[in-house]
Amino acid sequence: MTQSPKNTDVRALFNTIAPEYDKMNNIISLGTHKLWRQKVMARMTFPEGANIIDLATGTADWALALAEKSDPTAHVTGLDFSEEMLAVGQKKVDVSDYFDKITLVQGDAMALPFVDNTFDIVTIGFGLRNLPDPVLGLQEMYRVLKPGGQLVILETSQPDNPLVKPFWQLYFGQVMPMFGKLFAKGKYQEYKYLDETTEQFMDYRTLGQRLLQVGFEKVTISRFNLGAAAAHYAVK
């Protein structure tokens, strides 16, 4: 059982919310999560025949976007520890134009089942904050990346503008869990947990420092929606 820092069985939680996950993502982010991914991928470089892995792939939205963006000889692996999230994702992959270049696998982002220097690109979107040990996850990402490979992290963040932060806290602390109750079959506590992981996760500067400590180079950061999300780019 994978436990979060709040002693929550995260795998069980995501298995529970899997059926409504895509709908809730659109509601909670007001559709901006798709725009954030588009902006992030516009800054990425896709070598020919790239071997790509999307960690915490969930229902495979980013895996599908990576498959679309990369050339026909590239391959995308989507890894997640929730079998129910992967089941939803597999249905989307099966009816897509990229079913033959995407492989979804169940696994632990803190103990990746791949040898060193396997991937040209590693991505993780809105999943790092749910790892019991995010730094161990970063170390695993570094290990499986090829020298010169790209790491891209897209994650919720905390605004530091004192005028904006109270509204952000109200939205994530009160409104988002209520959306879970109204639109996700009463799953208030599950979405309350997701709010708490967002609020308690390291800020964007600290994450940048952790990347450097792990060994990554050329760390750059982009922020979205007044700091509600941040993208970190790094190279091994």
TrEMBL record:
It catalyses: a 2-demethylmenaquinol + S-adenosyl-L-methionine = a menaquinol + S-adenosyl-L-homocysteine + H(+). Pfam families: Ubie_methyltran (PF01209). SUPFAM superfamilies: S-adenosyl-L-methionine-dependent methyltransferases. GO terms for molecular function: demethylmenaquinone methyltransferase activity. InterPro entries: SAM-dependent_MTases_sf, UbiE/COQ5_MeTrFase, UbiE/COQ5_MeTrFase_CS. Its EC number is 2.1.1.163. Keywords: Menaquinone biosynthesis, Methyltransferase, S-adenosyl-L-methionine, Transferase. It comes from the Bacteria. GO terms for biological process: menaquinone biosynthetic process; methylation. S-adenosyl-L-methionine binds at T59, D80, D108, A109. NCBIfam families: MenG_MenH_UbiE, PRK00216.1-4, PRK00216.1-5. HAMAP family: MenG_UbiE_methyltr. Belongs to the class I-like SAM-binding methyltransferase superfamily. MenG/UbiE family. PANTHER family: 2-METHOXY-6-POLYPRENYL-1,4-BENZOQUINOL METHYLASE, MITOCHONDRIAL, METHYLTRANSFERASE. This is Demethylmenaquinone methyltransferase.
